[in-house]
Specification:
This protein is mainly alpha-helical and 92 residues long. 71% of the residues lie in helices and 0% in strands. It is rod-shaped. The termini are far apart.
């Protein structure tokens, strides 16, 4: 186990990776009978192949969410540590 704290979007990336792997395995299982010349698998396996693309989209949305949160934190930190603007010279 790591000591790193989970960040925003990490869960989406993990779920997306699992969905992608399930879809990739379903794709391999679906394509294999076509190369071996055996009977094709039922239509349900073809629908499971769609998880590959959906998993990629879920993982990509997790990466984008993580980037947005990090950018907000960086902007907030920059605003907090920015030197105060010099005051305008007064007209006398």
């Amino acid at each position: 186990m790591s000591d790193e704290t989970p960040r925003a979007g990490d869960l989406l990336v993990r779920i997306g990776a699992i969905m992608f792997l399930v879809g990739a395995l379903a794709t391999l299982a679906t394509v294999t009978p076509l190369f071996l010349g055996t009977t094709p698998l039922p239509w349900g396996f073809y629908w499971l192949c769609m998880l590959m693309g959906a998993g990629f989209l879920v993982a990509a949305s997790g990466v984008i969410r993580s980037a947005v949160v990090q950018r907000r934190q960086a902007v907030a930190a920059a605003e907090g540590s920015a030197p105060s603007a010099p005051s305008a010279p007064s007209a006398r």
